[in-house]
């Protein structure tokens, strides 16, 4: 081993500054030397054709061998061989080693699939809490390939206008198709109704004679009818018997234990269903229910007069099937609902789309200070004068205020109507139908219409009275900006409404709207104060601009009319009673006259017969006369009694 080789081995791993010590590196053969290109010239002398080709080949082969030897020497010079086959470049550059691709393990594949699932959930702002939640679907075609959903159901979805699944449908439908219990929270207008109706129709398959197998509970009759229409459209071609409790008297005989049990899906409000369950014996059976769906769950879980907590407990106790599954859907969620679901629903999966208890970003929200109650009416009329694009929903806090605002706007030249709980069901149905058809431009309503009702194309929502809570505000403005369409929400507030102003301003800020900083810096209120404000509406001045003298005069006129109507009704009742008595008296007199006439005729016949025949025959005729007369008298008495009974019944009915 010479000194050069020894130096090579000792210098393993060392780095030299090639720019600074260039000459030394070239001296010790670490740097590249300039390449000495050797050109091989092949001289071919012109000779005869016979000896030309072999001399060419020999000289070319010698030239190629020399070029190969030169390349080999250059490569050995540029790279230093250190230990048996390991070469290091002389210029100090890094060695690039290609890694061999290893085979994918099952764990790695599962990890990549989970990363893809998380990516789709993050893109659609879906958060899932629960064990072994199924992956979301990205198109409705995956329902048939992955979950074996029939093609007719997918076609019904497309005919209803659903081309691509919404975020809540992407995650909620696979969960329910796997018979998992669900608590879902998604913004208003995001397709929650179709998200729970499609799995129900798929699970039930077809009609059976087992009674109700699925129950959907809604807080209002309007929402129940809307869900009923959607269910009929989605189940087209399946021959399901879908029922909605519209009249209690019919339901008592229709769904009783002696009925034919030819029904499958029930959509109802809680109070009507509880009334049927409280009958002796119960007028409806829920023992075969497989799915219990609670729409607007946070409203139904409220305590007190406005909530349905007790009714919901009674309904869930009546569902005694061991295979019962529950699903709760709402646009807002409260801690009470989540706590109850965690304790009572086994294998629960909690799905939230977007931020919980947040307004949709498609609604442009605005707050307008109007000073006092009189300023509200002035601001509303200014909006009408500037021009607005109907249909418009106007929310007030009570039925009385809704009627007062209706009386003020009815003469302003716009098609306006009002809907509240005091109106009959036929009136409410007609108002909703006319509003959908565009015959009504402005609809004044209470909290009755604040939940779930889907009016397509509502361009503007006006909160005439400030909402009592942030949840109420979210549901009110959620009547616009539905199914991807943009909308606008305008909220009037006065000096008395500053208590809830901070919470609503925070919701507006979260949804991307501009809010003044002083609203967010206002005082926070405790939970007790917030609950009190939710239950007790603030006292407000009357909307009506009619003077008090005119109001008193109208009230007096009303009372007079009511008194005169009562007097007329009593007079008609008395006159009808007298007529009935006269008719019964005339009937009794006519019956006695008929009796006398018949007896006289019989006597005359007997006398004639007695004169013709002897005394013995006359005796027999007298006995026959007595028997005939007694029979006729009995018949007359029975007819008189029946006539008197009829008159007494008519008097009682009057």
UniProtKB/TrEMBL annotation:
Pfam families: DEAD, Helicase_C. Residues 524-617 are annotated as: Disordered. Its main location: nucleus. One of its GO terms (biological process) is maturation of SSU-rRNA. One of its GO terms (cellular component) is nucleolus. Its EC number is 3.6.4.13. Residues 95-122 form a coiled coil. Residues 362-523 form the Helicase C-terminal domain. Residues 173-351 form the Helicase ATP-binding domain. PANTHER family: ATP-DEPENDENT RNA HELICASE RHLE-RELATED, RNA HELICASE. Belongs to the DEAD box helicase family. DDX52/ROK1 subfamily. This is Probable ATP-dependent RNA helicase DDX52. The gene is LOC107269897.
């Amino acid at each position: 081993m010479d000194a050069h080789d020894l130096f090579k081995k000792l210098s393993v791993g060392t780095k030299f500054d090639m720019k600074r010590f260039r000459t030394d590196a070239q001296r010790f053969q670490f740097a590249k030397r300039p390449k000495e290109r050797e050109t091989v010239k092949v001289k071919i002398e012109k000779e005869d054709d016979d000896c030309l080709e072999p001399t060419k080949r020999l000289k070319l082969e010698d030239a190629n061998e020399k070029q190969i030897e030169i390349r080999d020497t250059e490569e050995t010079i540029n790279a230093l061989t250190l230990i048996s086959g390991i070469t290091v470049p002389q210029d100090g550059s890094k060695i690039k080693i290609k890694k061999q691709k290893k085979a994918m393990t099952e764990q790695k594949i599962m990890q990549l699939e989970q990363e893809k699932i998380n990516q789709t959930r993050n893109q659609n702002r879906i958060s899932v809490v629960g064990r072994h939640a199924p992956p979301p679907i990205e198109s409705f075609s995956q329902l048939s390939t992955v979950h074996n959903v029939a093609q007719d159901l997918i076609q019904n979805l497309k005919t209803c206008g659903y081309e691509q699944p919404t975020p809540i449908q992407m995650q909620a439908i696979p969960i329910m198709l796997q018979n998992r219990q669900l608590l879902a929270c998604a913004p208003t207008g995001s397709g929650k109704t179709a998200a729970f109706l499609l799995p129900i129709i798929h699970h039930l398959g077809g009609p059976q004679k087992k009674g109700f197998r699925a129950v959907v509970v809604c807080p209002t009759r309007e929402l129940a009818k809307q869900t009923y229409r959607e269910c009929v459209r989605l189940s087209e071609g399946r021959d399901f018997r879908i029922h909605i409790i519209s009249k209690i008297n019919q339901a008592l005989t229709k769904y009783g234990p002696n009925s034919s049990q030819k029904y499958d899906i029930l959509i109802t409000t809680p109070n009507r269903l509880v009334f049927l369950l409280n009958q002796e014996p119960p007028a409806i059976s829920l023992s075969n229910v497989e799915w219990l769906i609670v729409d607007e769950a946070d409203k139904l879980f409220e305590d007190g007069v406005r909530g349905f907590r007790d009714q919901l407990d009674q309904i869930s106790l009546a569902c005694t099937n061991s295979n019962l599954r529950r699903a709760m859907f709402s646009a807002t969620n409260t801690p009470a609902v989540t706590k109850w679901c965690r304790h009572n629903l086994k294998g629960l999966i909690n799905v939230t789309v977007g931020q919980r208890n947040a307004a949709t970003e498609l609604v442009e929200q605005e707050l307008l200070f109007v000073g006092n109650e009189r300023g509200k009416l002035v601001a509303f009329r200014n909006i009408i004068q500037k021009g607005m694009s109907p249909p418009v929903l106007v929310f007030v806090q009570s039925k009385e205020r809704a009627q007062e605002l209706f009386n003020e706007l009815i003469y302003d030249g716009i098609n306006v109507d009002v809907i509240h709980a005091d109106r009959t069901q036929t009136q409410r149905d007609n108002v909703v139908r006319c509003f959908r058809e565009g015959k009504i431009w402005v609809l004044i309503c209470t909290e009755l219409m604040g939940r779930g009702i889907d009016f397509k194309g509502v361009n503007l929502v006006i909160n005439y009275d400030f909402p009592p809570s942030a949840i109420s505000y979210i549901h009110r403005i959620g009547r616009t900006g539905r199914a991807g369409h943009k909308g606008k929400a305008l909220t009037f507030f006065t000096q008395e409404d500053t208590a809830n102003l901070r919470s609503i301003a925070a919701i507006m800020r979260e949804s991307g709207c501009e809010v003044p900083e002083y609203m967010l810096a206002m005082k926070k209120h405790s939970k007790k104060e917030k609950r009190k404000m939710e239950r007790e509406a603030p006292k407000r001045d009357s909307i009506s601009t009619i003077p008090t003298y005119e109001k008193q005069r109208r009230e007096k006129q009303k009372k007079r009319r009511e008194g005169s109507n009562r007097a007329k009704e009593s007079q008609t009742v008395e006159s009808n009673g007298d007529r009935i008595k006269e008719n019964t008296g005339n009937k009794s007199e006519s019956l006695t006259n008929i009796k006398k006439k018949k007896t006289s005729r019989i006597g005359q016949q007997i006398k004639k017969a007695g004169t013709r025949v002897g005394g013995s025959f006359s005796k027999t005729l007298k006995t026959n006369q007595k028997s005939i007369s007694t029979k006729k008298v009995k018949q007359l008495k029975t007819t008189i009694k029946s006539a008197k009974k009829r008159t007494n019944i008519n008097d009682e009915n009057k």
